[in-house]
Amino acid sequence: MVSISLFACGPADQENGVSTGSPGAVSEQAPETPDANGETEPPAAEEAGGTNILVAYFSWADNAVLADDVDAVASPSVLPPGNVQQLAGWVQEETGGDLFAIRVADPYPSDWDACLERANEERGSDAQPELTDRVENLDQYDTVFLGYPNWWYGVPMALLTFLEENNLSGKEVYLFCSHGTGGLSRSVELITGAAPDADISESIFDCYEEEAAGSEADIKAWVNELGLGGSDTMENTQAERQIQVRFDGGTVVYELNDSAAADALLAQLPLTIEVEDYSTNEKIFYPPQALDTAGAPLAEGGAGVLAYYAPWGDVVLFYDSFGANGSLYALGQAVSGGELIGRMSGTVTVEIAG
């Protein structure tokens, strides 16, 4: 992947100006199909799921009244699943964010030329179409992915309505676009002008419309390059559960398990505390507060195991093998510096790693 990606989507007809669209859905379900009169109840926005990432997008297929005789060859982007919706769905899958489809109150025609004519009229008169929904609790989102097709070498005017109604000031904004031969054209300039106080990243994903359906790996790789993907989230979560024990002889890093006991230890850090020798295979220290062992796994293994002995209330740092004990619970495992555990002595600092 590249920072400002220039994936080539097969050329669209530049004279037509409308490059692509998608059958966007507020959730991952397909949109409701309008009846012959274009009357339908648009799906409501997906309820916020506690995430700080919003994936908002506009698509033609999600905003059109489908005629019975729609030409799948002349107007492929109007048929679900459309390009931008597919891209948005993959971003949502990778980030775990909330998906929001930007929908107009007055849908566009599904005929290519008729849609082109209306889009051009809106652009020429600087008209911003009315939308059916607004994002609920926008303040909960720190990061916004914004997807769109290139329409008339810019953006659908509905996207500007969205930016006017949803203040993205101070938010990290990442753009993704499906287009024809016009590329990004003036779209970034228009979005920046409509959201001047948003932090719009220079890392932009764009692809030619013919390649959109095969861009899953590419757009997910882009999301991970940004540090916002599932694999990065997992790595960050693991890093957040790593603690280190520092002493004069070096540093030992442990990765904690997901038990309540490990959480209780993590909540007490940092600690400056005395380490004591016990037997011939362990070092111990006593945290200020007892740890909750409910549901915690029993400790097993050998050198490098971090455990908690409930009857005494001490944390145990093993540097050799040990026997099973029904009151000894696992907290984690050394991932770095395990060979140094036996040398610990005196005062140590126990803190979150990094």
User: Taking all residues together, what is the mean pLDDT?
Assistant: 81
Q: What's the count of strands?
A: 16
Question: What best-fitting shape do the alpha-carbon axes yield?
Answer: elongated
Largest sheet: 8 strands, antiparallel, barrel
Helix segment count?
8
In the CATH hierarchy, the architecture of the largest domain is: 3-Layer(aba) Sandwich
The spatial strand order of the largest sheet comes to: 9-10-15-13-14-12-11-16
Count of domains? 2
Supply Rg: 27 Å
Low-pLDDT ranges:
1-49, 70-76
Structural class: alpha/beta
Strand-and-helix sequence, N→C? EEHEEHEHEHEEHHHEEHEEEEEE
Relevant terms:
Cyclophilin; eight-stranded antiparallel β-barrel; six-stranded parallel beta sheet; alpha/beta; disordered N terminus; Rossmann fold; 354 residues; 16 strands; elongated
What does this structure look like?
By secondary structure, the chain is α/β, with parallel strands linked by helices. It has two domains: 53-235, 3-Layer(aba) Sandwich (Rossmann fold), CATH 3.40.50.360; 241-352, Cyclophilin. Helix content is 22%, strand content 25%. The protein is built from eight helices and 16 strands. The strands form three sheets. The chain has an eight-stranded antiparallel barrel. α1 crosses α6. The longest helix has 14 residues, at 112-125. The two termini are 29 Å apart.
